[in-house]
Amino acid sequence: MAEKTTSKRWRAPAPEERQRDAERTQAALLDAAVTEFAAKGYAGARVQDIADRAGVNKHLISYYFGGKEGLYREMQRCWLESEKSFAGLDVPLCEVAVRYLRRGLADPRPPRLMLWRGLEDDDIESAPVDTSIGDDLAHIRQRQERGELPADLDPAAVRLALQGMAMAPMMMPHLAREAFGIDPRTPEFEERYSEQLRLMIGLISGKPPTE
């Protein structure tokens, strides 16, 4: 008598399951891309390495993002979207800088991406350009119009100075360690430097530090 065998009937995934799988895959690729681009720059990062880190087939990068450049641009877009949640015009400028600092200390990959952008700047084809600078300058002008910053300050200089102050501990951790005598990754450094950022930006704004 033949042995009776049973097997589970194959079922095609439901549309919502496919959607969740696609979203998980895209999220894994974006996270892997941040790590690879931060470690090697745009020019040095390889599609295969990004896919391997995400644990997926490299052809999915082309499928979901249109290739390496599309993946990079989507990574930038996601960052700009997240930025809106903590750097709006309703947040005082000193607190915006502190939030950038704290996010950078928690995840230094975005600041390292900025470093690579500067290192690769001689090759204009090496990486897609960040087009958010225009919006940043417009926001600074709005802060000037409502009296939060002196009107005679150049918005470009303000933007560059504030970003430099906020990102310096991640871009030059050795200098931060030598200057403060503590590891910039510690809560003690974060608290101490956050307070100094508030004081310095208060002075730039023309307001007494005690306000």
The helical percent reads 55-70%
Q: How many domains, as an integer?
A: 2
What's the N-to-C terminus distance?
Answer: 91 Å
Q: Total number of helical segments?
A: 10
For the largest beta-sheet, the strand count, sense and barrel status come to: none
Description:
With 211 residues, the chain is mainly α. It has two domains: 16-81, Homeodomain-like (Arc Repressor Mutant, subunit A), CATH 1.10.10; 86-211, Tetracycline Repressor, domain 2. Helices cover 67% and strands 0% of the residues. It has ten helices and no strands. α3 crosses α4 and α8 packs across α9. It starts with 14 loop residues before the first helix and ends in a 7-residue tail after the last helix. The model has no long low-confidence stretch (mean pLDDT 87).
Tell me the layout of helices and strands.
Elements: H1 15-44, H2 47-54, H3 59-65, H4 68-83, H5 93-106, H6 109-119, H7 133-145, H8 155-171, H9 173-180, H10 187-204
Give structural attributes:
single chain, 211 residues, mainly alpha, Arc Repressor Mutant, subunit A, Tetracycline Repressor, domain 2, 2 domains, 67% helix, globular
Give me a quick take on this structure.
This protein is mainly alpha-helical and 211 residues long. 67% of the residues lie in helices and 0% in strands.
